[in-house]
Design brief:
With about 400 residues, the chain is of the alpha/beta class. Helix content is about 35%, strand content about 20%. The chain contains 12 helices and 10 strands. About 35% of the residues are buried.
């Protein structure tokens, strides 16, 4: 009983420290249910129905200073702010995912106050202040091995977790409900702090909070870019520029390269305006120029009309108006070509019978402004008239 009191007192000290040092995070933490749970190794955050729980292992908590525990609390709360829980686009099986999430957050926090095992970009000699996606794409095999992670993705025996426990960060409700709940928490904390953003942190955290306070919708092209980036496959390629790790300089080593095979369905049934077509193809051209990608364009209406290997050329719409749109022929063509992702640019109306075709594993529907998706699988975004800046990848 005495031990329980000491642990509870330690967490209380961390909350007091937050109230004086980081009132914004203190206000966020007050909106969470505080739960002791020995099933987790360190600390985590979880959404369940309408409650967000801040969970910690009492034995681990006892070993931390109040400053370290406060910084850990800020870390897990930032998983909410950064949208890591609600975002279903991250591949949970890829060992780079949890590392990239932690790097993006911890680059904005105080490295000297973080508990042991909470990784910082300095630990891997990586730049400070990058996004989750940028860290994800920068992580090499040597980084994963240094952290005890299997580059092939099987981390069942990779040792203890790095920092907080990501496997407990799951959203039982939909992403839209989760985003709404977090936006409410962020807004409440902002008001309770006298409409002041947290000071002394990286611009990345402030930008994410500002985005939520503005109730801004993530532009369609940013969702498309993130979807494409996460679909990239990392493969090994032989190179004489690196010596073999086991056999030395007499044998070529390996380097990790990202490859991408994209299949794009283009609806030519007359439902897409010239303006929408131009905006979408402009983004596809940008993706092609900045990624090592193989792209296949499949023009369709009620059947596959034309299949092209895209090499950066201009693609104009040819409206055929032949009496309807069918998705089945497109997905059959995609099944033959076995792409990493399928992107469907359409108004969403489908005259097929339901579930007549094999559903691709990874599909993004890019919908016209007035479209309506008739399918229930994959992710979807609406192509709206938002300003598309020349954002770097």
């Amino acid at each position: 009983m005495q031990n329980h009191f000491v642990i509870s007192q330690k967490f209380s000290e961390a909350k007091v420290f937050l109230a004086s040092d980081a009132p914004y995070y203190s206000m966020l933490a007050r909106q969470c249910a505080i739960v002791e749970d020995e099933k987790i190794e360190t600390i985590s955050v979880r959404e369940n129905e309408t409650v967000i729980s801040l969970m910690y292992n009492p034995k681990w908590c006892e070993k931390q200073t109040a400053e370290q525990l406060a910084e850990a609390i800020k870390h897990v709360l930032n998983h909410l702010v950064f949208g890591h829980i609600a975002n279903a686009m991250f591949d949970e099986e890829d060992p780079r995912t949890e590392i990239a999430m932690d790097l993006a957050i911890n680059s904005c926090l105080n490295k000297d106050k973080l508990p042991d095992k909470f990784i910082h970009p300095d630990d891997l000699k990586l730049p400070i202040g990058l996004s989750t996606m940028e860290y994800f794409n920068m992580l090499e095999e040597v980084h994963l091995e240094k952290l005890g992670k299997n580059p092939n993705g099987d981390n069942s025996n990779a040792g203890k977790s790095l920092g907080d426990n990501h496997k407990f960060m799951r959203s039982s409700s939909g992403a839209s409900q989760m985003n709404s709940q977090v936006k409410t928490m962020v807004s409440n904390a902002y008001k309770q702090c006298g409409n002041q953003l947290p000071g002394g942190y990286g611009s990345g955290i402030k930008d994410m909070i500002k985005l939520m306070l503005q109730n801004a919708e993530i532009p369609w092209y940013m969702v498309l870019r993130r979807f494409i980036a996460l679909a990239s496959q990392v493969k090994k390629k032989r190179t004489w520029k690196r010596s073999h790790r086991r056999y030395g300089e007499d044998y070529p080593g390996y380097k990790r390269v990202q490859t991408l095979n994209v299949f794009i369905g283009l609806d030519e049934s007359g439902s897409i305006s010239n303006h929408e077509w131009s905006k979408f193809m402009s983004e596809i051209e940008g993706i092609y120029k900045t990624k090592e990608a193989k792209m296949t364009l499949c023009k369709f209406t009620g059947d596959v009309e034309e299949v092209l290997e895209y090499t950066g050329f201009k693609v104009d719409a040819t409206y055929r108006f032949n009496g309807g749109t069918l998705f089945q022929p497109v997905f059959k063509e995609a099944e033959i070509r076995r792409p990493d992702v399928v992107i469907m640019f359409t108004d969403g109306f489908n005259f097929d019978n339901p579930v007549k075709y094999n559903k691709p594993k990874s599909v993004l529907w890019v919908m016209t402004k007035d479209g309506k998706l008739s399918e229930s699988f994959g992710s979807s975004i609406v192509l709206k008239d938002t300003t598309n800046p020349n954002m770097s990848w």
